[in-house]
Design goal:
Distance between the termini: 23 Å
Structural class: mainly alpha
Oligomer: single chain
Shape: globular
Strand content: 5-15%
Strand order of the largest sheet: 1-2
Order of helices and strands: HEEEEHHHHHHHHH
Radius of gyration: 17 Å
Length: about 200
């Protein structure tokens, strides 16, 4: 499938429900037996066949758009409206970790191929930030199937990181240590290369 037409991102994310994925918990999604990233299935809601890779590619296309009107839409898909209330509650109990980094750290861990860290950050993103169930499921498959070095998946992770990167990320390099510095450097280098590609 080359295109999903003019579907909204939220509608595209729901297509993940047509992919056979196992897992009883929100963060342990894996492809069912004999299913791969390229296995095609009938997406009844749009009456077309498509694969997990097709869904990833469409999300990439949307995240690559830099028009300002898309930022609010992206944030609404990634986080629930209740997220701001969670932020306030965490600050009130003295949480010193900048919670806006949780999903960003997930992206950096995936790019580094550290699936254990990525899984932990994803679980926190789902429970603390209120990450949407559909997007959480898609990201959990990326982690559990270890797809970090698949070209299309890697592009998705870089674009996601770019869209949610905290404005003051560079200031935290020394605070978070060498591990963060290494991952952040890797991300910035790949993001710059991708930026040239999609211009």
């Amino acid at each position: 499938m080359n295109s999903f037409g003019k579907l909204r991102l939220s509608e595209i994310l729901k297509l993940i429900e047509y992919i056979p994925i196992t897992g009883s918990l929100p963060n342990n999604g894996k492809f069912a037996e004999n299913t791969t990233i390229d296995s095609e299935f009938y997406f009844e809601s749009i009456q077309r066949n498509g694969s997990f890779r097709d869904i990833v590619r469409f999300i990439n296309k949307e995240l690559a758009k830099e028009e300002e009107q898309y930022w609010k839409m992206k944030n609404n898909i990634l986080l629930l409206e209740a997220a701001e209330q969670r932020y306030t509650q965490l600050r009130e109990i003295g949480c010193s970790y900048p919670i806006e980094y949780i999903l960003f750290d997930f992206c950096l861990a995936v790019l580094d191929g550290d699936y254990l860290d990525a899984g932990l950050y994803l679980a926190h993103s789902f429970h603390i930030l209120g990450l949407s169930k559909s997007f959480n499921l898609l990201l959990s498959v990326i982690v559990n199937e270890q797809l970090a070095f698949c070209k299309d998946v890697r592009e998705l992770v870089i674009l996601l990181a770019r869209s949610i990167e905290p404005r003051n990320a560079e200031k935290y390099i020394d605070i978070f240590g060498s591990g963060f510095r290494k991952r952040y450097k890797m991300y910035k280098e790949e993001e710059q290369e991708l930026r040239k590609k999609i211009k």
